[in-house]
Amino acid sequence: MKKVQVLLSAYNGEQYISEQIQSILNQTHAAVSILIRDDGSTDKTMELLDQWVTTHPDKIKLIKGTNVGVVSSFFELLRAADAEADYYSFCDQDDVWLDHKVEHAIARLDSSIYTEVPAMVFTSTYLTDDELNRKGAWPKPPAQEPSFFNALYENIAIGATITMNRSARNLFINSQSVDSQKVLMHDWWFYLLVSAFGTVIYDNKPSMLYRQHNNNVVGGSNSIVGKLKSKWTSFKRHTGKDLLHKQASEFDRIYGSRLIGEQKEQLDLFLATRTRFMDRLRYARKSKLYRQSKAESLLFKFFILIGFI
Fold first, then answer.
1. C-alpha–C-alpha distance, residues 280 and 98, integer Å
2. Under a CB-based contact definition with an 8 Å cutoff, are residues 30 and 1 in contact?
3. How far apart are CA 91 and CA 16, in angstroms?
4. Is residue 10 within 8 Å of residue 43, measured between CB atoms?
């Protein structure tokens, strides 16, 4: 049976983390283990985790870490993960997995096509309130296929839904160390990485209950006002501060020499200096990068023309 290791980063998660761990242990796929890294919690999270390890020593292992932030914490989990596992799943502390999550991910990935090349699957979720009352499926399916040209501009892969194969982890582990300060989020980095060198699969069947509460690092919404607020927050966070450029530049530093064809051309074009308006206009015409929404793609081109990106 294929081995799956769940990588869970915890931080002050005493309120919900036990419910999440139980949902992982309830998976229909039996060969599942959990590697948890505590990112310097100051509440009772560690006490709870110690109890879980004591109760399930064959299933759960714990790393007691210092506070390095969510990106670095997940990267450390990947480095410490079981090298013999067949698949690895990112996991957040406050959600609840549906019992088929691991089994369905393996079914999508477990074929000869995806064994040798890096591959990952991500899914939609059921958006819920803090009591797990469902508000509907979220987010909507991507309007266009996942690709490297999309990943440079936008992340569509919700980290807590991602399962990757060993080849994807090995590509990360066996490359130069990444500066996590230049990475927007760990899931975004793997969307970039796998879309550049392997296969990214989207499954529209929700695999988990995505709990929304005041402490979410990244949140979702199905309401019109909530969506607009989320989009605006995302634009403010990712534009105007060279964050997209820094992430792309770090990707180029580590993996640029391996890229070929249009992928390398488009990455170089994105990273090129554009001090004059004509340079920005030329880039807007030549760029094949896109966001899933046509309106947002146009807005990005406008931001490029005015020198905001």
1. 46
2. yes
3. 13
4. no
Q: Where are the alpha helices (DSSP H) in 56-117?
A: 70-80, 101-109
Q: How far is Cα 212 from Cα 136, in angstroms, rounded to an integer?
A: 12
| Location of structure tokens 């670095």 | 72
Q: What pairs with residue 121 in β-bridges?
A: 163, 201
Phi-psi region of 240 (alpha: psi -120 to 50; beta: other; left: phi over 0): left
Residue 227, pLDDT > 50, answer: no
Q: What DSSP assignment string belongs to 185-225?
A: -HHHHHHHHHHHHSEEEEE-S--EEEE--TT-SS----SHH
126 contact partners, CB below 8 Å, separation of at least 6 = 134, 135, 136, 137, 138, 206, 208, 209, 210
Residues 6+ apart with CB under 8 A from 159: 74, 90, 92, 185, 186, 187
Higher pLDDT, 194 or 241: 194
Q: How many residues does the chain have?
A: 309
Per-residue pLDDT tens over the stretch 77-134: 999 999 999 999 999 999 999 999 999 999 999 876 777 899 999 999 999 999 999 9
State the amino acid at position 3 in one-letter form.
Answer: K
Query: What 3-state class would DSSP assign to 295?
Result: helix
Task: Give the count of alpha carbons within 13 A of 241, CB side only.
Answer: 10
